[in-house]
Amino acid sequence: MANWYEALAQQTSSPLFFIFLTLAGYQLGLWVYGKSGRKTLFHPLIWATGLVAVALKSGPWSYEEFREGTAPLYMLLGPATVALAVPLERQFENIRQLAVPILVSLVIGGVAVAGMGVAIAAAAGGNLVTLLSTATKGVTTPVTLGIAEGIGSNIPLAVAMVVICGIYGGLAGPPMLRFLGITEPRATGFALGINSHAGGVARAFELDIRMGSFASLAMCLNAVFSSAVLPWIVTLILDK
Amino acid sequence: MLSGLIILFAFTLIGNTISTALELSLPGSVVGLLALLVYLRLKGGASESLSLASEKLIGFLPALLIPPGVGLFFLGDVMQGQWLAVGLAMFVGTLLSIAITAWVMQWLIKREKQSGKGQES
């Protein structure tokens, strides 16, 4: 007699199943988002992340199993990052005309995102590991992994902070900036790229192509800036 | 679209190779991005296939962030007594630094426009 239960149980530990779970969660998130009339609070990332977490907690799976299973998706993050060169190249002339604003905003924004985060965490009683894990919150995930290992962060915490700041900044940033009277899409995009990296870039491209290309430009520049400057500042402060 | 995907994968591999060989603190994907940018500047633009592939892959970015995002729900005791510090740094700090960055950028763009150098595109 055919053992359907066993055959099905075998499937639920394969990478294919975890990728299916992620994609199905995302599709469901997209559906909810569409139904809500594209309200920020119903962004597919929020719902998909929550749904997948609930599914994992209620099933026999561990998070480690899930991370290993979805490694192929994670690998696509590389080519997806490289792909950002295409819209960037299309905006190259606009970017070159604004070289000075871009460089000044990069230094001020790059320092602000790490500095404000660490200062607030310190004031709220964060310990050293928390502060170090906070310092990289403005840097895109693959770059964060590189820096975090070097400075002694808690890596899961650092990565979780990056992803949450990415999702949250991308969602909360644009309405807040509109409220503050910032109407320049290139300024909004640049701020999203510095502070919310991939999450901000994804959101900026949903809103406006120029916003998106300035967001991806800012994300790349901050990846370069932070991986050069952060480890150096941390050593300087901790050695004192 | 296939040849576009091949180019993206090739530049990712090139970036990873350069980053690993030279022991850069810059990750391979960012090196690959910069290399592809230089290549496209020299070549004078992206092919239709590459444009399509990059557009599709960028549209897919949010889905790729789900697995690390789920990690938040599995942090456990690392967070003992640290929730307030982490929460405030993320939810208040991020908004503050977004506002600072965007404000500085908008101010500089307006100044540039007034001095007649920048152009509305």
Tell me about this structure.
The complex is a heterodimer of chains A (240) and B (121). With 240 residues, chain A is mainly α. Chain A folds into two domains: 11-82, no CATH class; 84-240, no CATH class. Chain A has 13 helices and no strands. Chain A has helices at 4-11, 15-35, 44-58, 63-69, 71-83, 85-90, 92-97, 99-123, 128-135, 141-151, 155-179, 185-207, 209-239. By secondary structure, chain B is mainly alpha-helical. Chain B has two domains: 2-74, no CATH class; 82-121. Helices cover 74% and strands 0% of the residues of chain B. In chain B, helix 1 (2-21) packs across helix 3. The radius of gyration of chain B is 20 Å and the shape is extended. At the A-B interface, helix 2, helix 3, helix 4, helix 5 and helix 6 of A face helix 1, helix 2, helix 3, helix 4 and helix 5 of B.
Task: Write the SSE topology.
The complex is a heterodimer of chains A (240) and B (121).
Chain A: H1 4-11, H2 15-35, H3 44-58, H4 63-69, H5 71-83, H6 85-90, H7 92-97, H8 99-123, H9 128-135, H10 141-151, H11 155-179, H12 185-207, H13 209-239
Helix pairs in contact in A: 2-3, 2-4, 8-9, 8-12, 8-13, 9-11, 10-11, 10-13, 11-12, 12-13
Chain B: H1 2-21, H2 28-43, H3 48-59, H4 61-64, H5 66-70, H6 83-114
Please describe the structure with a list of short key phrases separated by commas or semicolons.
heterodimer, A: 240 residues, mainly alpha, 2 domains, B: 121 residues, extended
Helix and strand content put the structural class of chain B at: mainly alpha
Mind telling me the C-alpha Rg of chain A? 20 Å
General form of chain B: extended
Number of strands of chain A: 0
Beta-strand residue percentage of chain B = under 5%
How many alpha or pi helices of chain A? 13
Instruction: Give the DSSP E fraction of chain A (strand runs of 2 or more residues).
Output: under 5%
- Protein chain pair with the most extensive contact, residues per chain: A-B, 115 and 81 residues
Order of helices and strands of chain A: HHHHHHHHHHHHH
Q: Which residues of chain A sit in consecutive blocks of at least 5 with pLDDT less than 50? A: none
Biggest sheet features of chain A: none
Shape of chain A: globular
What structural category arises from helix and sheet content of chain A? mainly alpha
Describe the oligomeric state of these chains in a short phrase.
Answer: heterodimer
**pLDDT average of chain A, as an integer?**
88
Count of domains of chain A: 2
Arithmetic mean pLDDT of chain B: 88
Helix content of chain B: over 70%
Helix content of chain A: over 70%
